[in-house]
Structure formats: structure tokens, C-alpha cells
Amino acid sequence: MNNWAVCDTLCNHTIGSFIEKYPEYIQDLKRWARADNRWLRRASSVTLILPARSGKYLKEIFEIAGILLLDGDDLVQKGYGWMLKEASKSHSAEVFDYVMKNKKVMPRTALRYAIEKMPVELKKQAMLKV
Description:
By secondary structure, the chain is mostly helical. It has one domain: Leucine-rich Repeat Variant (Alpha Horseshoe). It contains 9 helices and no strands. It starts with a helix and ends with a helix.
């Protein structure tokens, strides 16, 4: 992988479907989240986009977001922010609580992605400076 489009297409559909069929391999995503390679780190979160939409793997989503929380790469931040946004569709209160707990250190890019589909009042709370 050498760009976000290839990473996202492969991970969303192929690897994401594989993880849903064989969830025991989700542990590998946590290892990828710690990789030196930016595409593996992004892949660790975007692989869970489709399962997150279905409300699956919330514990693992928060674990991976925690590993990536302070990542300095904007494409990784966008990836885990997107994962949180999709998880919020089924688990809005839990994702909002996660964002509020971490907003002091969470990069603005990730935060904005995570809250994108939340109600306006929740977005305002999340965006207030601490």
C-alpha cells in the first residue's frame, strides 16, 4: 500500500470482511496500530469501518483508537476518527464519552472526524476548548 485510497479499499472490504468472518485475527490490528508504517497504522482502524457501522467490536475500536490517539500522522488521525464516527452510529453515547475523555490530547483532525455525524449540541461540547 502506498496511498490512502488503496489502503481504504483493501481494508474496508477485503480485510474488514475477513475480520468479521474470523474475529480472532482482530488482535493483529492492534499490532498494526503500533507499526512504524503509516499505512499499517491507518489500516488498523479503517479495517473496522464496516463492522463499526453494524455496532460490532466497540471494545476493540476503543483499544485501537487509544493506541493511535496521539499519532502525529494526519492520515492515521483521519482513519481512526472515521472509525469512531462509524461506531457512533450504533454507540453514540459511548463514543461521545470517549471523545470528551480524550479531547484534551486528541488531535483536532481525529476529533472532528469522530463527531461529524453527532447532534449539533454534542459537537459544540466536544469542540469547546478545555
